[in-house]
Specification:
The structure is a single chain. The chain is mostly helical and about 325 residues long. The N and C termini lie far apart (about 95 Å).
């Protein structure tokens, strides 16, 4: 009997069923594929501790002379610079760039905490404990019995809790509580004016002091514009006294405040919006300079009408790069 016949006469084995994970396991795998993984807290904690130790070493006698010379005051500029660089990284949409800039900003926090530790005021542990405690206290709808179904309710509760904290109500006896504080007290006066206007209007809006719709704000813009024109007319009529100049300044300030309020009402940060407008103007102006240089002229020597032509050409180039119609199709006018 041949080997082929032997194999043919052997009983057939049933094919093995494919092993399948339990349904609950398959469901968890699908969810893990859809959701980002949880951060590795052990690794993050170890790296953070290393960063704190590193900054302490840099401040030590065997560290870096520059680091040892720094104070809270001298680091202010770097803190502000790093904050704006985070904004730029956010606009770039590059994750690696954002991670790097957030790291630079984190270093500033660690640096200030190290300075405070050396002075015996607080350390980085106090910083973390403070924000952790505050976040739990400010979220009673999560960790307590308070109800908040919408973001508006959350923000309103948030402002009320902040006001109570400023009055000393958190853990203080009635006799030791401070005089009634304003909801606006927490807005730093050192903020850039546009950002301060945004913060003031936002805090007032959180307790209901706000416009019903955007049209009301547009009407207010028109009103403030008319008042500015009236002040300018009085100034140009020959009354160049300090009072009239101050009136023009006041009206310009009112107009800017309403403009910041328009942005706030529409859910836009005016500081970021203006930063983008600044970059857009800078890009277009530099393109004007390049075009004038190619023609063998300095931009300062170009006649006014030709400047407008260069501006429209710069806008057209920008629009084409973005895939949008240029000025000829979309309408002209410098803006």
């Amino acid at each position: 009997m041949s080997s082929r016949q032997v194999k043919r006469n052997q009983p057939r084995r049933k094919p093995r069923a494919k092993s399948r994970a339990p349904r609950s396991t398959r469901k968890r795998k699908r969810q893990s594929a859809q959701q980002p993984s949880r951060p590795d807290l052990r690794r993050a904690g170890k790296l953070f501790a290393g960063l704190v130790d590193l900054q302490a070493l840099l401040r030590s006698p065997r560290g870096c002379p520059w680091d040892r010379e720094q104070t809270h005051e001298s680091l202010r500029t770097y803190l502000l610079e790093e904050t704006y660089e985070v904004f730029e990284a956010l606009d770039s949409g590059e994750p690696s760039k954002l991670a790097g800039e957030l790291g630079d900003l984190l270093l500033q926090i660690v640096f200030h905490a190290e300075l405070a530790r050396e002075a015996g005021r607080f350390d980085i542990g106090d910083v973390i404990e403070h924000i952790h405690t505050k976040m739990v206290r400010r979220h009673p709808h999560v960790f307590g019995d308070t109800k908040a179904r919408t973001s508006a309710q959350v923000l309103k509760n948030w402002e009320q809790l902040k006001a109570e904290e400023r009055r000393g109500g958190q853990g203080a006896s009635p006799g030791k509580r401070k005089a009634a504080a304003s909801l606006l007290d927490g807005v730093p006066r050192t903020l850039p004016a546009l950002l301060e206007a945004f913060q003031l209007a936002r805090r007032a809006a959180r307790i209901g002091f706000d416009w019903q719709d955007a049209e009301g704000l547009f009407d207010k813009l028109a009103e403030e514009t008319a008042e500015l024109r009236e002040a300018l007319a009085r100034l140009r009529a020959g009354n160049s006294s300090g009072g009239e100049k101050a009136a023009v300044e006041d009206e310009v300030g009112d107009l800017l405040f309403v403009a910041a309020n328009v942005a706030r009402f529409l859910g836009i940060d005016p500081e970021i919006a203006l930063k983008k407008a600044n970059r857009k103007f800078s890009t277009r102006f530099r393109e004007m300079e390049r075009r004038a240089a190619r023609a063998g002229r300095r931009l300062a020597e170009v006649p006014r009408d030709d400047l407008e032509t260069l501006w429209e050409a710069a806008k057209g180039k920008e629009a084409r790069a973005a895939g949008a119609p240029g000025p000829a199709a979309a309408g002209s006018g410098r803006k």
